[in-house]
Every structure is written in C-alpha cells, then in structure tokens.
Write a structure and sequence with these properties.
- The complex is a heterodimer of chains A (about 290) and B (about 450).
- Helices cover about 35% and strands about 25% of the residues of chain A.
- Chain A contains eleven helices and eleven strands.
- The longest helix of chain B is centred in the middle third of the chain and has 41 residues.
C-alpha cells in the first residue's frame, strides 16, 4: 500500500505537463450525485478486522442506469459492490460504517431484515455458480423461498419470463429438468442472471460477470445487460475497460479503497479529470 | 550373536556409507555441487542403499531357509530307524530336539541319540548364525565400497534414489492388499470346511441359533443348530438403533460446526467431539452395561414396559453415541467441501442460513453424507465390545428393541473364547459368520466409496 502511494507522485511529476489534472486522493472528483438515485451511499468505510478496505466512499446509483466500477485489483470495488446488498455480512470480521440508503431506508439499520433487501438487490458473481439442481429449480429457488408464486402455473411463468429476459429460453426450454451445471459457462452465467431476475429485484449487482467467459459469451452478456437496463438498475464491477465503456452510462474509478473519480462514462474515458484515472485508462498501470 | 545386533550393525554401516558416498561425490567435483548431476545427499543415499539392501535381503532369505536346511542336516545325522518314522512322528522328534537345544521342556525321555541330535542342532545353528554374520557384513561392506567407488559426476543418483523410493512405496501398498487377501482366504477356507458339515441353506436361512455341540458322544447337550438369521437380525436391529441415534445428532452437529459455529467455538468443540472417537469401545461397553441399560430398565418400569436388563436399545444407543464423531466429522468435511459460491448464490437471492442449508448445501453434500453414513454403518456392524456387555448373548429372533439380542460379532467371540477343537462345526461356524459379515461390510464400503466418488465429480 505504501509502496504504491510512494510511487504515484513520481508518476505524477513525469506527466504533470500533460493536463491540468487533479492529483490529490482526498476527495472524489466528478459528480457523485445523480438526479434520480436508486441507492445513495454516503461516507462508507469498510474494515476487514483491523484493516480498512474502503475509505469514505460517497456515490449515488442512478435508476435504470448501468454504473460500472473499475480499478486495479484490490482497489475495493468488489468490496464496495458487496456492501450494497450486505453480502459482506457473511465474511467474518467485516465491518461497514457510513450510510447506504435505498428508498430512504438505511440498509445497515439494525432493524432491517436482509432477506427482502437481498431480494430487491440481486447479485451475479464472478464465476457462474448455478446450484447443482435442474435449470427449472435453479430459477424457481428464489421465488419459492420468497413465496412469490401462487401456484405451479404461476411459477412456470416466472421461470419462463426470467429465462426469456436472460436470453436463455430458446436454448434451455427443452432441458429445464436437466442440471444447471451441465450448461456451458456463458449459459450458466445467463442462468445465474435469470435466477437473480426471477425474484424481481430492483437493483442487480454484477461482480466481474464475464471474467470467466469467452468473448462470444461475453458479448451476449453485455447485450443482455443493455436490455436489462430498461427494467433494472445495474452496478457492475469489471476489469475490462472496454466492457465498462460499452455497457455503462456512468463509471466510477476506485484506487486503493478510495473512490477517485466518477462521471459519465464518455467523459471518464475521453477526458478524465484525475491523474490516477488517466493513468489507469491509458494503461500506465493497473 | 543375535540377529538384532546384526541389523543394528547394518544400519550403522549404512550411515557410514551415506557419509562416504556423499563425501566422495563432493570430492569428485572439488565441492562445486552444481557440477554434479544430483545433490550430494542423493549419492550418499545411493551408496547407503547399495550397502544396506542386498545385505538385508540376504539376511531375510537366510533366516527363512536356515531352519529347514539345518533341520534337514540334523535328520540326516539321526539313526536310520528314526529317519524312517512316518512324517508326523518325525516332526514330534524334531520338535523335541529343538526344545532340548533351547533348554525347554521335552515331551519324551531324553536318550543318548536325542542328546546328540540336540547338540548337533545347537552347533549347526551356531555355525549358521556366525556364517550369516560374516556373509551379511561382507556383502554390505563390499557392495557399499563398490557403490562408493563407482560414483561419477554424471551418475544419475537422484533418478535412481527416486526409483528405489517408488519401489518401497509400491511394496508397502501391496503389503496391505496381500494382508487383506490373506485374511479373506483364511476365513474362506475355514468356512468351506464348515459348509461341508452344515448346508449353506441351513446356515443362511435357519431361524434358530444354538451352537452348543457335544464334544464326546456320551455328553448331554444339543446337537447344534446353526441358523444365522437371528444373529443378523440382531445385528441389523442394533445397527438401526445406533443409526437412529448417530445420524441426526452427527449431521446436525456437523451442520452447526460447518455453518453456524464461530471459529473460536469450532476450534474448541471439534477436538472435544472427536475425543468420543478416541474412547476405547470397552469403556463404552461398561458405560452401556452399567449406566445406560439399568437406566432404560428403570425408565421402562416407570412407564409400565418390561425392559430386560440387557437390551438392544441400550447397546444401540451407546453404539450410536460412539459413531457420532464418525458421522459428524465426515459430514463436516463434505459440507465444507460445498463451494462458497453455492452459499453466496443462495444468500444473494435472499435465502436465510437454514434455507440455504436445507435447499442448497444438504442436497449438494448429500451423496457425501450418505457415503459417510454407510461407512459408519459398517463400523456399527463390526462393533463387538458394546454388544457383548450390553445386549447379551441370547440369540432371540425379535424386532423388539427392549429385549436382549445378540449379534454376529458377539457370537464369533463366544464361539472362539476358551479351549476349542478347531475342527468342530461350532468353531468353524465363527469363520462362516465372519465371511458373511465381511461380504456385507465390503458391499457397504463399496457402495459408500462409489457414492463418494460420484459426488466428487459434481463440481469439477
């Protein structure tokens, strides 16, 4: 950690003349607020035991938008993403302070039940993780535990719409009773997206959803993300800057646990305002 | 000179050989290890192996043939009339000769020829031992020296040592296999002798077990009925009770340990639970007989049931407690083997912990759990001490857990305890029982292994 921060000023001096960019990492550069936020995060700190992983991050997640989070490995973007549906609760010794609100409700409020929260903030993981059940049961799992279906026909229709929205219906409709683990990697990931959609969430969090997939499967998922934006709010963590540029409307750049810069994706990739962002997107490090 | 002294000497020579082999390899390259093909220690090991292994093989061969060669020579020196005795009688005489030379009790009177033969035997054995000593040590030294002299810097000592290690590992694993085969064969042959006296169908399907047979014709006693059904029924009853106790408790404790317990509690509770597995079964036995069985009997009296003081229930419950750690630690392992991604996926959909466990983790781990339970079943079937003490010896054919029953293993013990004729149906029955039991547990183990293996393929 110290090593990197010591190296950064050196990098900065070298290219100081390049642009009138900001170099301080104390404040986030760019517009953290949006007009129509779905979730609002204020002064979020995350600790793993004694170690602080996220420093004072404030960020709005806009409704029906895709926001991508980029940054070098270990910069805290996944940790931040997992704060949004309290998935960090399952990690021993993880502590979150600050405020994350959804519909004026603080999701870290002691009285809040994480079950409905996670139903409305779904998550798709880095590695496709279908349950070792049939395709049908994979999708029906969420609706069943939340009691979303009234009868078998209703459940069938939920499964069908979810698979259709995830673009998997045509490939899977004849093999709904076969194990989800038998699908290809890209299909499995779409199955996981369908599984998340099935509980009708408002926000979908995606943690590097394409990093284990080949380019064709990736293209399909990216297309899907773009379609899903109509109904859902999506936050995606990605290592691929091209992917961020393709799928998202806003981009947030994280560095060593700090939110360095956030803004319209076009602006971030064409005229970054912070030195570190510029270095990262031009491939100088990361 | 004793054989153990020789072995110690050989080991000493081997360490010397190691030292000199290593030293020579280093001196060959003037201390520059990188010029050698292998590290110096490999040259040392190679020399030590050349020094030790041929000598040890020679020692083993010598010891296995020494007795028969020496005996043959003694027989030749015996008078003609003794040499022409039938083989059994000759064996008796030779046995006496051996006993005499070792100063043990002799069955017949000691005469001149016997004494001479014994002296001859003693002196031959002495010569043989001395010769062995000299030959083995010289083989060791010569082979070691030769190996040390022939070390060159290109010699592939590392590869050779690797091959030797490979061979040792192979022979260790085949040893276990041969032992199993040996046990099976010995049980099989005795069983065949039993089935020559008692028909297989009577043994497998007979409903009465009463193995007492009259040894002498004038003795009063039953002629022996060998129907094994009551024994297997008793075994199954007790195993069933044990499983009813062990599976739910073991599984639930495994789930708690794997999914709920804090790290601190886990590190504390797991060894404590595994202490249960370390208690000798004899101790469980008297716990069952002195504490649990009377407790059930009194409890039965209180609620108006007749519980015999030795009951299948008491034995089964205590046996169940004994196998709890078996079930729990195997289940714990398979539950932990369920990838964290499965849990994340379920939590991410808003499932609670118990929903995740019920709907995702248990189904995913089920084949492994079933495999573990089957291994525990075969353990319960083979268990003896608890049942001897707590369930009694009477071969009742009953499904009532409050009565005394007996199991296969208990009957094997009672059949073979004490002085026995080894050709009567009574003692041979023990081998037949063991054979059937072996087949059952083998089948269970194979099913369990098959299920466990199938489970492994699931995530890969």
């Amino acid at each position: 950690m110290n090593e990197t921060s010591a190296a950064t000023p050196g990098l900065a001096e070298e290219t100081e003349a390049a642009a009138g960019t900001v170099q301080s990492t104390d404040d986030t550069v760019g517009e953290i607020y949006v007009d129509d936020p779905r979730m609002t995060c204020r002064n979020v700190d995350v600790y793993y035991g004694e170690k602080q992983a996220i420093f004072d991050v404030s960020l709005d997640i806009g409704k029906n938008q895709v926001i991508s989070m980029i940054g070098p490995s270990g910069c805290g973007k996944s940790t931040f993403l997992r704060c949004l549906n309290r998935m960090n609760d399952t990690i021993d010794g993880c502590r979150v302070t600050g405020q994350i609100k959804m519909d004026e409700q603080d999701i870290y409020d002691g009285g809040l039940d994480v079950v409905p929260l996670r139903a409305s903030v779904g998550m798709v993981f880095q590695k496709p993780n279908p349950f070792p059940k049939s395709i049908y049961d994979n999708i029906a799992y969420g609706p069943k535990i939340h009691g979303l279906s009234d009868n078998k026909e209703h459940l069938d229709s939920i499964v069908e719409t979810s698979l259709q929205r995830a673009g998997l219906w045509e490939e899977a409709k004849d093999r709904l009773d076969q194990p989800g683990t038998g699908l290809s990697g890209g299909q499995q990931q779409r199955l996981c997206i369908a599984r998340a959609i099935a509980v009708s969430p408002e926000v979908i969090l995606m943690d590097e959803p394409c990093s284990a997939l080949d380019p064709i499967a990736t293209a399909k998922i990216e297309e899907l993300i773009d379609e899903l934006r109509e109904r859902f709010t999506i936050a995606i963590v990605t290592h691929s800057m091209q992917q961020a540029a393709r799928v998202s409307q806003r981009t947030a750049y994280f560095h060593l646990g700090k939110l360095i810069e956030v803004g319209e994706t076009d602006q971030i990739f064409t005229s970054p305002r912070h030195k570190l962002t510029e270095d990262y997107i031009t491939g100088r490090f990361g | 000179m004793h054989t153990s002294t020789l072995i110690i000497l050989l080991l000493g020579l081997m360490s010397l050989a190691y030292y000199f082999g290593r030293k020579r390899s280093l001196s060959l390259v003037g201390g520059k290890v990188r010029d050698l093909h292998s590290l110096p220690s490999y040259y040392g090991m190679q020399t030590a192996m050349w020094c030790g292994i041929p000598a040890l093989i020679l020692l083993a061969l010598w010891l296995s043939f020494e007795e028969s060669v020496v005996t043959g020579m003694v027989v030749e020196s015996l008078p003609q009339e003794i040499q022409e005795l039938p083989p059994e009688r000759l064996d008796l005489v030779l046995n006496d000769v051996r006993n005499l030379s070792q100063g043990d009790i002799v069955s017949s009177t000691v005469d001149q020829t016997m004494q001479q033969a014994a002296d001859h035997y003693t002196s031959l054995m002495g010569i043989s031992h001395m010769a062995l000593f000299v030959v083995a040590l010289s083989v060791a030294i010569l082979a070691g020296l030769w190996a040390q002299r022939t070390i060159t810097r290109e010699q592939r000592a590392r590869n050779r040592v690797e091959k030797a290690i490979n061979f040792f590992l192979l022979s260790s694993s085949t040893l276990a296999i041969f032992t199993t085969v040996g046990i099976v064969l010995s049980v099989l042959f005795e069983s065949v002798r039993f089935f020559q006296q008692i028909p297989v169908t009577e043994f497998l399907f007979g409903l009465e077990w009463s193995p007492q047979t009259a040894i002498r014709p004038d003795q009063v006693g039953s002629s022996g009925v060998f129907g094994s059904v009551p024994l297997f029924a008793g075994t199954m009853l007790i195993t069933l009770i044990a499983m009813i106790v062990a599976v739910p408790i073991g599984l639930m404790s495994a789930i708690y340990m794997a999914e709920y317990a804090s790290k601190h509690f886990r590190t504390l509770a797991k060894p404590v639970l595994e202490v249960l597995a370390g208690i000798p079964t004899v101790v469980y036995g008297f716990f069952a007989a002195l504490t649990v069985a009377p407790f059930f009997r009194d409890l039965g009296t209180d609620i108006g049931l007749t519980v015999s003081s030795e009951s299948a229930l008491a034995a089964g419950v205590v046996m169940g407690i004994m196998i709890i750690p078996f079930v729990s630690s195997l289940s714990d392992d398979v539950i932990n083997a369920v990838p964290q991604a499965m849990r994340d996926g379920s939590y991410g959909l808003g499932a609670t912990r118990s929903e995740t466990i019920r709907n995702v983790i248990i189904p995913a781990a089920l084949p492994g759990i079933v495999g573990g339970v089957l291994l525990a079943v075969s353990r319960a079937i083979g268990e003896t001490m608890i049942v001897v003490m707590a369930a009694g010896l009477s071969a009742n054919l009953t499904a009532n857990p409050l009565e005394a029953v007996t199991t296969v293993t208990v009957q094997i013990v009672t059949l073979l305890v004490g002085d026995q004729e080894f050709d009567s149906a009574k003692t041979l029955a023990a081998f037949a029982l063991a054979l059937v039991l072996f087949v059952i547990t083998l089948a269970l183990n194979m099913i369990a292994l098959h299920i466990v293996r199938k489970y492994r393929e699931q995530y890969e």
